[in-house]
Amino acid sequence: VFHGAGHNLAGLRDWEPGDRPSTLDWAQSTLTNFSPLITREFDQESNAPVVLAADVSTSTRFGTGGESIARCIARTVATFSMAAAFFQDRAGLITFDAATRAMAVRPRIGKNHAIHCVEVYQEHLRPE
Question: In the sheet where 38-44 sits, what is the strand order?
Fold first, then answer.
């Protein structure tokens, strides 16, 4: 268990430079006359970002049973990025083909960001 932006309150501590403003406990801080500011700490399972590597080469246009490989990859990107959003972990995306590799989406948190990862994957697919 790491301290970070999880769901379970682990305790309170004095504010330190670099703490996110969203973790300030304003009610507790008023009791100390804002000197010092009080920060909430949370427990979370991990704080490592999820970085997905997705193939965008032309070989992903093929598949079986009417299902392309690209469609399966898009579902996988959606599943892992939504799981990361659910656990408040950052998710990012790297796309690659035979010639190029690019950091398509920098790791961030949130459902909208997970949807953005899927959209960017689909945009990076090379036209047939």
Answer: 2-4, 38-44, 8-14
- CA–CA distance, 85 with 92 (Å, rounded to integer): 11
pTM, to two decimals: 0.60
Instruction: Check if the beta carbon of residue 87 is closer than 8 Å to that of residue 44.
Output: yes
Q: Residue 128 — pLDDT band, cuts 50, 70, 90?
A: low
Which residue has 């990361």 as its token pair?
Answer: 84
CA–CA dist 2, 4 (Å, integer): 6
- How many CB atoms sit inside 10 A of residue 28's CB? 13
- Per the CB < 8 A criterion, the answer to whether 14 and 39 are in contact is yes
Sequence length of the chain is 128
Please state, rounded to an integer, the average pLDDT across all residues of the chain.
Answer: 84
What pLDDT sits at residue 116? 93
